[in-house]
Amino acid sequence: MLRFHNTLTNQLEDFQPLTDNQVKMYICGPTVWNFAHIGNFRTFTFGDILARYLRFKGFQLTHVMNLTDVDDRIINESHKAGKTIDEFVQPYIVAFWEDMEVLGNNRPDVAPRATEHIAEMIQIIETLLANGRAYESDGSIYFRISAFPEYGKLSKINFSGNETGGSGRVDTDKYEKEDARDFALWKLVDKSDPAGWDAPFGYGRPGWHIECSAMSMKYLGETFDIHAGGIDLQFPHHENEIAQSEGATGKLFSKYWLHGEFLKIDNEKMSKSLGNEFTLRDIIRRGVNPLAIRYLLISVPYNKQLNFTFEGLKGAETTIERLQQFRRLVSEANTENGSNAEVKALVGKALTEFETAMDDDLNTSVALAAIHNLVREINTVLAKDELKSDDQTAVLEAIEKFNSVLGIFGKEECEMLDAEIEKLIEERQEARRNRNFARSDEIRNLLSEKGIVLEDTKDGVRWKRK
User: Fold this and answer.
1) Considering the entire predicted model, what is its pTM?
2) Which CATH architecture has domain 278-410?
3) Inter-residue contact 431 to 445 (CB < 8 Å)
4) Euclidean distance between CA atoms 324 and 327, whole angstroms
């Protein structure tokens, strides 16, 4: 039985979807004001592994991950750049999907943008105003926390008697409100500000929290199975999502809540002031194999803190090379017809241990250990020339199953077709024309890893296999 640690109940629970084998899942995505950093990608890779494993288990999954393309920071930065919100965020949206692909993360089924769901946000706010859980103050609209007695049930923070935000983490907005704990649903802005929308309660823009409630319920319904994200979002963001969503519908918002833990850099909290807030692109520019980054990100279970180091990355690169070499050795082995009972048992044991580990709240470290044990044992069989044809098929099929969930083996070189190579080369040329040399270098490195050498000549780009 698949089990998750549910933040809402603070218990390890068997996973039972609300409807048969249909799973509806929402994950908080990036705020597209800059390139995403490696801490962000730990969360997004956790989300990818979660989605892959749900499908591996046979569930029919609808995976939604939003793009926050309007908030205070985006508005301030777009004003500084003299651009509209859309003009400012568009390059970062493109970059985000490029980074996700480079890291091996699949796209969600639906990736809604906040600015395209203002009408849904307004509808929820109107409902909250009508039932008394929201109020107007100086043109802005606030959620009245005192009207939602269950506030704090996710974060387990006791707010009784706390009317001034004494926890130190209470969401405070620069507007007048009844209670310091109350949070903005809609912020009044001047009619001259292009970063605003018309609403029955005045020209303004949404608060951050209402965006996720509107987008999740739009595509998954008023109650859905899983809401996931980074631990930094547990409070106040996810707590506020619950309050405004359940305050509007009177129904349970999400049955299971999963939170990915923090990533540290060399045992230090990642921050700009320490100079260790690395984007994925910063790391890849150092010549690091993206698969090694992915491996390191999943080497520790999602709900345990991860210490990310460049020494650890070197070790991960060696591990990835060893895994890929193992697959090649098995694929290219000269085998005789038949099967080896020992190999069959080893493969079955590895698959069972892998699935048991992943069933236990996505314990990726134990799942990886099962893979490495199989590699070691089959290498011994290969060294003795005892691998039979049926065994070869069984091992390769096991590798494919592991890879369908963890995505750490990458594609086999032979899987890269000429058309795919040409498409990447054209993308590289377009990046060069746009002076996006970072992306150009990434593509060259990617092709090099796949055994493709590029030659820039006066007649254009030529390529050949190593």
Assistant:
1) 0.86
2) Orthogonal Bundle (1.10)
3) no
4) 5
